[in-house]
Records
---
Amino acid sequence: MATNTVAIKRRRAWTTTVFIKQLMALSGLFLVLFLLFHAYGNLKLFIGAEAYDHYAHWLKGEAFYPIFPKGTFIWVFRALMVAAIGIHIFSAFYTWYKSKKARKHQYAVKKSAVDAYAARTMRITGVLLIFLIVFHLLQFTTLTIRTGFTAEATPYEMVIASFQQPWIFVVYLIFVSLVTAHVGHGFWSAFQTMGWVRKNTRTFMLWLSGIVAGVIFVMFMLPPLFIATGVIH
């Protein structure tokens, strides 16, 4: 009887709100690492067309060869990204659904106005980011939406042609601003969810979250800004 009870508790642990929040936290931290890596790669635009194109072709061809066969790593990486985004979205929806259900039964603990505002902001920015990510993939990955470049254009030429158009710059600015807002709260929240925030580290973690979000914003926006102003062409 005791063994069955333990087994049931273990099975239920996989569906608890705490476990789902931890999944959301870990997947979110993984995505933050991706953003930092992606933003760093974009800075190669400052070195020139040859360096940026080499980096782009390396990712799709010889990345981590011979550990991965040529052209394989990018697909493994994309699969991990899809899995992380899927887990993050599912976790966010699940916790929102459980919270809404708890409020109906009046079991939920009353949140402060700040916490409630942060939760709403995270949901709104998250939904908007989904649409912008799809647009970004259709633009630079599948080339379905060609914003000023041809199908034969190099990666460098695609980026230059795109951000020479004011409306693309504005869309990207909105995109990066939403990412920054999402990361700014989510980074700190993830560490809090994992139980890594203490009274003596709270202020430091808040500052660290702001710094990480700020670094992501600056790294992502520098290349488009220099292209839009004609410094990079």
Note: The chain has a mean pLDDT of 83.
---
Amino acid sequence: MTDLPPNTALPTPEVPPADGEAEAKPEVGVGPWEGEWPGGEQWDPDLLRDGDRRNVVDQYRYWKHEAIVADLDSKRHEFHIAIENWQHDLNIGTVVRTANAFLAKEVHIIGRRRWNRRGAMVTDRYQHVRHHPTVEEFVQWAQGEGLAVIGIDIFPDSVPLETYDLPEKCVLVFGQEGPGLTPEVHEAAVATLSIEQFGSTRSMNAASAAAIAMHAWVRRHVFKQPVS
């Protein structure tokens, strides 16, 4: 026994749930619509009847999937995101999820068509994703759309993202986790930007870098914050 002061209360041991008794889990979303149903083409009758448990903002509760995508399309931002996928990069799903959060125009997968969708948490249903089999095909597409190709990586000629005036119409390109941007993308980019770091590691996770770069674009072109 452990020596304890007099009248010390002992901790109550956790009791596992009895057989057949599941632990209560918080419900996600909202239940069936209460009261008279709203009118409008955007509403999904099945969701109104059964409830909406999707991971969507309150504005889109009970909306049809295609109605949500159409509304997002009407206000998407002018930047695109691209990521190279030569070795089935596990970061791609997270990048797609973040691109959806920042309302990127499109996400572009360069290289292998197949990618791990687990990290996207179903947000790829609301985010346009385009595939380019080669860097050359991707660059031709970007130039045809009038988009500045901006690489994000650490090279001797990289300039700081923090002080670079990102163009409004651009595509931010990220390399494979580990090797980074390929020489072909580096050569095609009008600029390559690095993210300032202050710790001991040389580089950061590609998905984290993508989130930082997207937020930099939002600060510049949505909140009109000038670069110093």
Note: Residues 4-12 have pLDDT under 50 and may be disordered.
---
Amino acid sequence: MGDLEIRPALADDIPAIVAMLADDPLGAQRESPDDLTPYLAALERLSGDPNQHVVVAVRAGRVVGTLQLTIVPGLARMGATRSIIEAVRVHADERGSGLGTHFIEWAVDRSRSEGCQLVQLTSDASRTDAHRFYERLGFTPSHVGFKLQL
């Protein structure tokens, strides 16, 4: 993956990021590529927080992946710091290329360098292919997650 760069997301990357977020049945229901204003505001807010890492994978000048890594200091587990991986997307043209594995490995390595003792993520119950992918990388389906829409 020597031709791949992982770097912080920039405002110019938002159209490509939102396109990837919307490029599946779930994302198509909850994302709006027609209005990038809320995404730009969110990126600005996230970029100012040292515990938030919104990154993109770039190959040959093209954004081909994105994820958000959040560092969460805590009291539980003897004051452990954990990280949360969210919004992982790989461009359809890149799926099966090893990019997803490389991207998650980057997030785990970054979590270690930030002093995290645990990396966690959630995946929609309908994403069975993603579940197999995460399990292959060593993640275990150890908890049941709940959400409350506000």
Note: The chain has six helices and five strands.
